[in-house]
Amino acid sequence: MNDLTENFLRRAFSGVILVIWILAPYILLQQFAIREIWWLQPTAFDNAIPINFHSLWFYYTFYLLLGVVGLFIERPVYLRYLYVIGWTAMVAHMIFLLLPNGLSRMEIHLPDAPVYYHWLATCDAPRNAFPSLHVALSVVAGIAACASKRFNLAAKVGVILWILGIIWSTIALRQHVIIDGIAGMIIAIIVWLIVGKVSRPELDS
């Protein structure tokens, strides 16, 4: 087994572990609440973005984005990337637990929605909206790509546009409101900075 294949398998394995780390608590926390659920209300900004079911395909590329960035960044950036994703997900899960919240889908007329949206609505209950994990982890991927020397300017711009598309899709599908996205961005940036400070020797190795 050559080094390239071994590196790919290691990163693929760690990626699978991270997906489990992200999804298992997320799904569990959709099933119960320790207090009354806080239902978020759309702002004028959110209402200005029309519902677009086709944006679902952008929404689903979230996991592809995390994987692509994770495969191509260099090892020190990759290690920081893993830690930040893990801690960011944990912070979000703690907020979901202590401040149960959701976003109603009453605005969406389900009979008019395509089959692929029904699949999303069936698998993902309208809970765990604040903060947006989609936005938070996409921003982590964007920061990692921008910090990597392996991504040239065109690739970095492409990643940023990709992230903007994902953020748009979260609102266009009424999965989130803008406050969810802002909270996710703030958490991602803070965790990235903290991990960089407390783990500097290991991440530079």
Automatic annotation (TrEMBL):
InterPro entries: PAP2/HPO, PAP2/HPO_sf. The chain crosses the membrane at residues 12-34, 54-73, 80-99, 129-146, 153-171, 177-195. It comes from the Bacteria. Residues 119-195 form the Phosphatidic acid phosphatase type 2/haloperoxidase domain. Keywords: Membrane, Transmembrane, Transmembrane helix. The keyword Membrane applies. Pfam families: PAP2. This is Phosphatidic acid phosphatase type 2/haloperoxidase domain-containing protein. It comes from Rubritalea profundi.
